[in-house]
Design a protein that fits this description.
Blueprint lengths: L3 E2 L10 H5 L7 E6 L2 E6 L3 H15 L6 E5 L3 E2 L6 E2 L3 E5 L8 E2 L5 E6 L2 H17 L4 E6 L7 E7 L5 E3 L6 E4 L5 E4 L11
Parallel strand pairs: 5-8, 9-10
Antiparallel strand pairs: 1-3, 2-3, 4-7, 5-6, 7-9, 10-11, 11-12, 13-14
Length: 193
């Protein structure tokens, strides 16, 4: 489980300049949510496992010139100008940037591991990602380790997400590029035989 807190500095909103000047912290992840500093603990083992296994599956399938990245700081517009998606697929060149821009994200993925993170990922981040023009957004929920699921959000012409039904098992998509993801393989202990 990921523990989340939101202690804003001096109980006031934080500016982008103040956020960008924060020291590097390897124990926590920082984001700006609705103008305030959001401090999130590093992912717990089930969350880390799902990110790693998703990265392996994506890495084997994304088109040339693109690459999956985990935990890249993203630069958005609006009241949450700094976010850290669990996984993004983006042009290889973003590895040379301090942070990724929303217009460079071909696919953003969040892993929901608790009720609190599910609310944030399915509602708050979905609104923010849509407002920033991220055409393809996935939420993989592993709240119940026995029944992991994938919900796909696709931006329509009006700038709103169309939300697909929750999928389980092996999922094949054609957008943003052809992929087959084994959702069940993202959770559970590694099989050694």
């Amino acid at each position: 489980m990921t523990v989340e807190t939101a202690p804003p500095p001096h109980e006031r909103p934080i500016s982008v300049e103040e956020f960008d000047a924060l020291p590097v912290d390897t124990d926590d992840r920082y984001e700006i949510e609705n103008g305030f500093l959001l401090v999130k603990a590093r992912p717990a083992p089930p969350h880390s496992r799902a990110i790693f296994r998703l990265m392996v599956q994506l890495n084997a399938q994304v088109p040339e010139g693109l690459e999956p990245f985990s935990e890249l700081e993203a630069e958005f517009t609006g009241r949450s100008p700094r976010r850290v998606p669990d996984v993004v697929v983006a042009p290889v060149e973003v590895e040379e940037q301090a942070r990724i821009r929303a217009d460079q994200i071909a696919l953003a993925v969040e892993i929901a591991t608790s009720g609190e993170s599910a609310v944030r990922d399915f509602a708050i981040k979905a609104r923010e990602y849509a407002a920033n023009g991220i055409a393809h957004y996935w939420v993989i929920d592993i709240i119940d380790g026995d029944s992991a699921g994938l919900t796909i959000f696709t931006l329509d012409a009006e700038g709103n997400y169309r939300i697909g039904p929750r999928a389980t098992g092996s999922v094949t998509v054609t957008e943003p590029f052809p992929l087959t993801i084994d959702i069940d393989a993202l959770t559970g202990r590694r099989k050694t035989s």
